[in-house]
Write a structure and sequence with these properties.
mainly alpha, Rossmann fold, Serine Threonine Protein Phosphatase 5, Tetratricopeptide repeat, DNA Cyclobutane Dipyrimidine Photolyase, subunit A, domain 3, 3 domains, five-stranded parallel β-sheet, 18 helices, 5 strands, globular, binds flavin-adenine dinucleotide, deoxyribodipyrimidine photo-lyase activity, FAD, Cryptochr/Photolyase_FAD-bd, DNA binding, flavoprotein
Length: about 450
């Protein structure tokens, strides 16, 4: 029977190991995207992610059609739906690339078992990470909790495999197989349509990702190392949402960057290494998620459970979300996020630190807001980085290192270019006064942290 390729966090045709295996099997192929909002433990997508997914499926369907293939859309509980589809299609094999969350892995294991029991070939592949989380272990056999030795262990072995080419053509298994109508999924906002800024900022899809990477390597890589912390410079790759949805693979990034690196010397070569190290942080976040599946809800350091969060100040939370705190860099970042679905990494650190350490609001509430508003909202990277900023996480910033957001602005946005872009009224009477005193709240945060220490 034909092959079913179940696409999930790998919405691409190039360097797709599951698809490559299906092509090698030599039978017609059905490409499937399944929207599963009902299986237990699967985190519901945030609003910006839903918008991204909608655009991505349009783009992927067009890419598949250009090769003679077809993307079939279904919605429902994965376990039942895969079984149904295999029957409808008379499929002889199902292929997919792995996911790393616990609920997803358990689901995939159950499906693999029931397919195998039914005599259907079921294979999973490594498509989304350079290093499968369970293959990287300390000398003592335990998972890594610190980034530098983790990345050293990753990069001291053989280099990641080369990317697979996209298939030259696809033969569709069954043109009559029912497919949902994408608009019926209502992934895109309608009333109110808040996605105008997202449309302006982004073109989701596989070819857009390849163009971004090529432009980044041409134009920005040499200065990435020195300018990546300056939000007004826009030298970073902006590849994170494409990596999140697998519209580009880390293998493609690794190998293209590695080739570019060979032509570089000095600071530019260091920049290339630095860029790949950032891709390594994504690997590390997944390594940590794999070993701590409750990353979005549970402090990695149990001592942090004793942190005395004061009662939630909902007005302060709303001011943070809406970029009305009276702290220029925080407000610029939060407005960039709301408008464009992304925020520069340096500013993510500053806004997160401000929420946790100046507003004394639990990091989980910040994580949830980012989850809903980021186009790159990632099950591993988002909670991992929030715990990193909070000081509750792996290889975390020590809690007592509290960013002063005004000093950060002076240092990383010295001419207020970034601030003015998103907070045009800054410096006028229309701009609000700070909602908290930075020094006072910093002292309160440090005092609260003392309780965590004494609880250990
Ligand atoms: P580049 O500088 O071009 O880096 C290349 C790639 O490396 C990125 O696309 C990303 O995949 C990876 N990367 C870089 N930094 C990190 C990091 N600190 N952790 C993990 N991967 C990294 N990144 C997400 O992809 N999804 C998230 O949900 C997310 N939430 C974050 C929340 C907070 C509080 C903070 C401080 C950071 C978060 N990040 C997240 C990490 C980082 O801010 C973004 O990956 C980065 O800003 C994306 O821009 P870029 O693609 O231009 O990055």
């Amino acid at each position: 029977g034909p092959s079913l390729v179940w696409l999930r966090d790998d919405l691409r045709l190039g360097d797709n190991p599951a698809l490559t295996a299906a092509v090698e099997r030599g039978r017609p192929i059905t490409l499937l995207y399944l929207l599963d909002e009902v299986s237990p433990g699967i985190r519901p997508l945030g609003g910006a992610s839903r918008w991204w997914l909608h655009q991505s499926l349009v783009s992927l369907a067009a890419d598949a059609a250009a090769l003679g293939g077809r993307l079939v859309l279904r919605r429902g509980a994965a376990e039942a739906m895969i079984g149904e589809l295999v029957e409808e299609l008379g499929a002889g094999a199902v292929f997919w690339n792995r996911r790393y969350g616990a609920a997803e892995r358990e689901l995939d294991t159950r499906i693999k078992t029931s397919l195998t029991d039914a005599g259907v070939v079921a294979h999973s592949f490594a498509g989304s990470l350079l290093f499968e989380p369970w293959t990287i272990r300390t000398g003592g056999g335990t998972p890594y909790t610190v980034f530098t030795p983790f990345w050293r262990a990753c990069t001291s072995g053989p280099p990641p495999r080369a990317p697979y080419p996209a298939p030259a053509e696809l033969s569709d298994a069954d043109p009559d197989l029912d497919s949902d109508d994408l608009p019926s999924w209502e992934l895109e906002p309608s009333r109110p349509d808040w996605a105008g800024g997202l449309r302006e900022a982004w073109t989701p899809g596989e070819s857009a990702a390849q163009e971004l990477l090529a432009d980044f390597l041409d134009e920005s890589l040499p200065t990435y190392g020195t300018e990546r912390d300056l939000p007004a410079q826009q030298v970073t790759s902006r590849l994170s949402p494409y990596l999140r949805w697998g519209q580009i693979s880390p293998h493609q990034i690794w190998h293209t960057t590695d080739v570019a690196r060979r032509g570089l010397t000095g600071a530019a070569a260091t920049s290339a290494t630095r860029f790949l190290t950032e891709v390594g942080w994504r690997e590390f976040a997944h390594h940590v998620l794999f070993h701590a599946p409750d990353l979005a809800t549970v402090n990695l350091r149990p001592g942090f459970d004793a942190f005395p969060w004061p009662p939630l100040d909902v007005r302060a939370l709303a001011a943070w979300q809406q970029g009305r705190t009276g702290i220029r860099l925080v407000d610029a970042g939060m407005r960039e996020l709301w408008r464009t679905g992304t925020m520069h990494n340096r500013v993510r650190m500053v806004t997160a630190s401000f929420l946790i350490k100046n507003l004394l609001i639990d990091w989980r509430l910040g994580e949830q807001w980012f989850w809903d508003t980021l186009v790159d909202a990632d099950q591993a990277s988002n909670p991992f980085n929030w715990q990193w900023v909070a000081g509750s996480g792996a290889d975390a910033a020590p809690y007592f290192r509290v960013f002063n957001p005004e000093l950060q602005a002076t240092k990383f946005d010295p001419h207020n270019e970034y601030v003015r872009q998103y907070v045009p009224e800054w410096g006028t009477d229309a701009y609000p006064a700070p909602i908290v005193d930075l020094g006072e709240t910093r002292r309160a945060a440090l005092a609260a942290y003392e309780q965590v220490k004494s609880a250990r």
